[in-house]
Specification:
The complex is a heterodimer. In chain A, strands 2, 4, 5, 6, 9, 10 and 11 form a 7-stranded mixed sheet that branches. In chain A, strands 1-3-8-7 form a 4-stranded antiparallel sheet, with no helix packed on it. Chain A has no helices and 11 strands. Chain A is an all-beta fold. Chain B is mostly beta strands. Classes of the chains: A mainly beta, B mainly beta.
């Protein structure tokens, strides 16, 4: 069974860059689309973007100017960078697998990242 | 951009009752719709994909129906562990991406 685990700093200062990595165990990152999704406290789910194992990316238009998602197939992980963060970027960040069918079948447990000075 | 509207926002029912949750899309999404269950402190869990197909390990009490713009998630007989928040989600070709509804909170009456 595929397992995903987010890692990275949980506290980021305003205007700095949020960086998270999702490590895949019990499965290969080759094939599939690998997404980041966030959920602000008490709010719904927002898709941030995905990276295909080849490195092709697709980002939410509302975040595109600040987002970079990359993949490292040799380490079986993919990463998120979100620049110029503000308090509005405080959220639980999930990594997830989209198997090409348009839905997310495996999710990480989530990482709460707080933007605060 | 496709907007998904879920109703009701909150549904209060008792164990053993039948739950009917609605998701309406602002434009047709065909059968490209999924449903998820989320409990506090947990990641969403895939229940239904392609509008009506149950994901692996999901009990038969969960069923999905609909196509185009109107979709329904039905839980035929509520168990205590079914009380959670339910989200619908779709994939769009333009703009390319994915959107979620705001959720329906299913609470114990």
């Amino acid at each position: 069974q595929v397992q995903l685990q987010e890692s990275g700093p949980r506290l980021v200062k305003p205007s700095e860059t949020l960086s998270l990595t999702c490590i895949l165990s019990r499965g290969s990152i080759s094939s599939y689309y690998w997404s980041w999704i966030r959920q602000s406290p008490g709010k719904g789910l927002e898709w941030i973007g995905y990276v295909y194992y080849t490195g092709t990316t697709n980002y939410n238009r509302s975040l595109k100017s600040r987002v970079t998602i990359s993949v490292d197939t040799s380490k079986n992980h993919f990463s998120l960078r979100l620049s110029s963060v503000t308090a509005a970027d405080t959220a639980v960040y999930f990594c997830a697998r989209e198997n090409g069918g348009g839905f997310f079948d495996y999710w990480g447990q989530g990482a709460l990242v707080t933007v605060s000075s | 951009e496709v907007v998904l509207t879920q109703s009701p926002a909150t549904l209060s029912l008792s164990p053993g009752e039948r739950a009917t949750l609605s998701c309406r899309a602002s434009q047709s999404v065909g059968s490209d719709l999924a449903w998820y269950q989320q409990k506090p402190g947990q990641a969403p869990r895939l229940l239904i994909y392609d509008a009506s197909k149950r994901a692996a390990g999901i009990p038969a009490t969960f069923s999905g129906s609909g196509s185009g713009t109107d979709f329904t998630l039905t839980i035929s007989s509520l168990e205590p562990e079914d009380f959670a928040i339910y989200y619908c989600q779709q994939r769009s070709n333009w703009p390319p991406g994915y959107t979620f509804g705001l959720g329906t909170k299913l609470e114990i009456k």
